[in-house]
User: Fold these one by one.
Assistant:
Number 1:
Amino acid sequence: MAKTVKMADIAKKVGVSVVTVSKALTGQKGVSESTRQQILRLADEMGYVQPSAAIRSETKGHNIGIIIHDKYFSKYNSFYLQMYQMLTSRLGAQGDFTILELITHDMEKELTAPNLLKENKIDALVMQGEFSRQYCEFIKSVAGDIPLVYLDFCDESRDEVSVISDSFYGSYYMTNYLFEKGHRDIAFVGSLLQTTSITDRYLGYVKSMMEHGIQVRPDWQIEDRDKNTGIIFEPDKLPLPLELPTAFVCNCDLTAGVLIKRLEKEGYKVPRDFSVVGYDNFIFPGVCDVEITTYEVDMPVMVQKAVSYLTSLLKGEDVKMGTHIITGHLIEKDSVKALS
């Protein structure tokens, strides 16, 4: 069977980027006429066929692949399941078909391609939730010329479209909120560098602490997950510092719920003894009994934007590459106590 010609093959022969080849083949601006003609001539000689055009002749919609790391489907963590359901619903409403594949820790570590890419079944790909930089680069090399969108994490190379929530300022606002309630001894709960969102939320916390003249204590940066698997600790495994603060900024509501359970095991009550804030406004029922004050992620807008960018890419339209940030808002519940 003859090898399928991809845009990357044409780009290599011409000595340009895949983006340039895509623009030339779809009639977009930003390519000189001589380069465009060279690309078109070579594509014809090599027998290049746009995959989306072939599929559209057989079906009304596109086949959209979605890959998610299986660590995001651990015991209580179904935030990404809700996002996936919202994504498939919106794509289905416009006539597209979705194929989900979970990526295991070993697949990511060993750079194993998902079957939906190996079998050339999809027109476009959504990578939902964070993957390692190495795996992202590997997926881009395997995906070739098909459109790719990152959802809820960003592409550091800025070569693709990324849609994320406002982690930095969200955490900054939550920390400011605790200062407004009279707290000054504030810890951060989240394993730094495990995901870009956790690190961004930590930096938002640091900005607020610095602006209030408070030194960040190393022992008040508390790990919340296994560094090898990325799975959030059970309550009895969550470490607590010897000297406790009066309030905790947690990188997500699930971690906040686990922290509250851990504090309760030590005989404390939230918010009577400690105040806790989270991020997401999503927690699996039963994780804890306290309603957590949090920064709500605007999931519907994030999904809508991701689908919009994906659709434009499939049509060959100009899309601004890089990171697109969607703001959320603070929601007051029952986990914070004002200090006199």
Note: The first helix runs from residue 7 to 14.
Number 2:
Amino acid sequence: MSDREMLDVGTLTSWLDSKGVGTGPITDTVPLTGGTQNILVRFVRDGREYVFRRPPLHKRSNSDETMRREARILTALGGTDVPHPRLVAACDDPDVMGFTFFVMDAISGFTATTDVPEPHASSVELQHAMGLAMVDAAAALGRVDPTALGQAQVDRADGWIGRQVGRWRKQLDSYHELDGWPGPDLDGVDELGAWLDEHRPAEWSKGIIHGDFHFGNVMFRHESPEVAAVVDWELATIGDPLLDLGHLLATWPDPNEPRTKGLARRLDGLPSRAELIARYGETSGRDMTGFDWYQVLACYRLAIILEGTHARACAGKVDEELGKRFHSVSQALLDQARALVSTSPQAV
């Protein structure tokens, strides 16, 4: 993929001129890598660094709306204490470049999945504070008034908690449309779905959820353990913010593993699961008694999402080895959820 395919510099320059964003030429364009299919390009204009975000080259049917939704989320977060990239300007007219896109401020920081620099790499104290800072960022998001996204979207979230199992089971069943998939060969998926429906919390609170909250979507400051920004908001919606903590703990590094999967290096100072749950409760004011349900839901949901890659691999649409690896991760998530269910007070 060439830089020219990813970014039409001339059109972007004219569009930025129309929005009053800097002057002069765009320089120093650098594609950014990450776990998303969407394209990000860092660039400089008038001495400032920005990031251009657009859909993949081969757009999906919902790509333009995904960009619009992410831009709306970033707009809603403006002025809050949630660390996020500041939205500079958004284009919701696909005729300008053939797709919708937006420009945001570049963030100075690092992602622990690709790099853990000093002094963080050698300091268990900083690593411990990094973990707590992630929970604080999630709690801050949970405090944002969801009506910032519009009352209509808040109203659509009615019944969110009751729809979760059916919504994700429907997605799992949809993989039968892919030739070669052997079906949901995942131990525990049915029993977990039944447990989630049976133990669904009677009360829950609406809020904005990130939807994919884990180390790969968090940038830390170089000079401190603070979160510089939570990134990749394309799955954000309104639901119960406790799901973000559930997702974080579902993907939290196992302290008993000889090496830390998913991070650039082993971080021995990270807080325990109990510390993270207690911190979220203190920071958010939420009652964490029934939290296990949200971590089980996060495991169930993420396992089904990742199984989609396995199904596409079976159909020859993605790399076979990647599909096998994701299938293994899906099973590990379900095993984690079953272990949690077996010890949860909610299981009684």
Note: The CA atoms of residues 341 and 347 lie 6 Å apart.
